[in-house]
Amino acid sequence: MVLGIVGTTVLGVVLTAHTGDLRWLFAGLPATLVLFLAARLGPTGYRLAGDGVCVERKAGPRANRESVVWLATDSGWIGLSPDRPDEFVDRLRRRLESCRVLGREAAEGRLS
Q1: Which of 31, 37, 95, 112 sits most deeply, having the most CB atoms within 10 A of its CB?
Q2: For 26-40, how does the pLDDT look when each residue is reduced to its tens digit (9 = 90+)?
Q3: Rounded alpha-carbon distances, angstroms, from residue 93 to 18, 60, 71
Q4: What's the DSSP call for residue 104?
Q5: pLDDT tens digits for 5-29?
Q6: Is 75 helix (H, G, I), strand (E, B) or coil?
Q7: Of the candidates 48, 44, 12, 10, which has an alpha carbon nearest to the alpha carbon of residue 27?
Q8: pTM of the predicted model, to two decimals?
Q9: Boundaries of every domain in the chain
């Protein structure tokens, strides 16, 4: 596809130089538009679900913006949209608390 776009664009430039007609510069435009449309409809990712592989599409429904979980990191904010946000936050808090306890024990020399 890209070769077709580049080829028709180069052909358009050559024909414009040869004939002097600027309309030849638009020879690659239809293929370019098709490429942009195909990229818009292409998959953004795949996830494994209980019933098989689900394809995430760009043109399909977006993330559930009401259930976004925001995490503050050292390099900025990260927004996640898990299927069950409350359960995700609870599990994350428990995990972070267990890491804090392990860190305190290691600092006090009680970690074995």
Answers
A1: 31
A2: 888 888 888 888 777
A3: 69, 32, 11
A4: H
A5: 788 889 889 999 999 988 888 888 8
A6: coil
A7: 12
A8: 0.36
A9: 1-61, 63-112
